[in-house]
UniProtKB/TrEMBL annotation:
Gene Ontology MF: a single term: hydrolase activity
The name this protein goes by in its record: Alpha/beta hydrolase fold protein
Matches recorded under Pfam families: Abhydrolase_1
Class of the enzyme per the UniProt entry, highest EC level: hydrolase
Residue span(s) of domain AB hydrolase-1: 29-270
UniProt cross-references to InterPro entries, sorted A to Z: AB_hydrolase_1, AB_hydrolase_fold, AB_hydrolase_sf, Epox_hydrolase-like
Taxonomy, superkingdom: Bacteria
Length: 285
């Protein structure tokens, strides 16, 4: 657990979409840390255990995306709002260029930002969550459990989903369950989650993407110019390992690191190895 304090690091900035909150620690080149989706998620909970290490070399900025109970809810689709928020956030802070670490959905947001704002991204690190299923069925086990919880939130369904996120079930502690449950069941946060993972909304999104005249996100990853490190848990049950194959092959300057005995939360479950790998990548000129 980080020795940095939640309240001491908490900041906020006003943007055209609403107030965005974030945590700031350390000095050096800017490093944006972008969280994933799911019940009770926040940027702080995703990355609090890594901040001490990364803050030794970087100005760490942990953005809280709209609709997850910390920043203002922009009111739209959570993924689209996250993409909008990242642009508004970097503009508001005057960040001309930054490295990015993105967990799951946050990795997809980072990829989108790197494609549309190539001059503003130094290096990009993703943690699972991008690409598309090639050999494994979709939606994955973790996504299906997430949908079940979103449709009808119960503690049992939350615990089932949390277990799908990790390789080691001991990581699903009572403390983790309680903190996730409290935020995930707040009315506004749950309403936002249903815009993304409610079964009807999810089906509509998939249908829209299949019928659209624009390419799927995984089909444009060749446009990522930033040096990219793809990190993955070998035992990820949310975004199975075969999803990494297209980004690994199509992102021009991509490296790929797989962590054994590790699920979806690589930065938590393979903490020390992840930090060593990322620091080596970011410091390599």
């Amino acid at each position: 657990m980080t020795s940095l304090d939640y309240h001491d690091t908490l900041r906020e900035v006003t943007t055209p979409g609403g107030v965005l909150r974030y945590h700031e620690a350390g000095d050096g080149p800017p490093l944006l840390l972008l969280h994933g989706s799911g019940p009770g998620v926040t940027g702080w909970r995703n990355f609090r255990g890594n901040l001490d290490v990364f803050a030794e070399d970087f100005r760490c900025l942990v953005l809280e995306f709209p609709g997850y109970g910390v920043s203002d809810d922009f009111g739209g689709h959570p993924v689209i709002d996250a993409q909008t928020a990242l642009v508004q956030f970097t503009d508001a802070l005057g960040l001309e260029r930054a490295h990015i670490i993105g967990n799951s959905m946050g990795g997809g947001v980072g990829v989108n930002f790197a494609i549309h704002h190539p001059d503003r991204v130094g290096k990009l690190v993703t943690i699972g969550g991008i690409g598309t299923n090639l050999f494994s069925p979709g939606p994955s086990e973790g996504i299906r459990l997430l949908q079940e919880f979103t449709e009808n939130p119960t503690r049992e369904r939350l615990v089932d989903w949390l277990h799908s996120m990790v390789y080691d079930p001991a990581l699903v502690t009572e403390e983790l369950i309680e903190e996730r449950w409290a935020l995930a069941t707040e009315p506004e946060t749950l309403a936002s989650a249903r815009r993304l993972y409610g079964k009807a909304a999810f089906t509509a999104m998939m249908d829209m993407m299949r019928k659209a005249d624009f390419p799927m996100p995984w089909a444009v990853m060749h446009k990522v110019a930033a040096p990219t490190l793809l990190t993955w848990g070998r035992d990820d049950r949310v975004s199975p390992l075969d999803m990494a194959l297209i980004p690994m092959r199509t992102i021009p300057n991509a490296e790929f690191h797989v962590f054994p005995n590790c699920g979806h939360w690589v930065m938590i479950e393979a903490k020390a190895a992840f930090e060593r790998t990322v620091l080596s990548f970011l410091s390599d000129s």
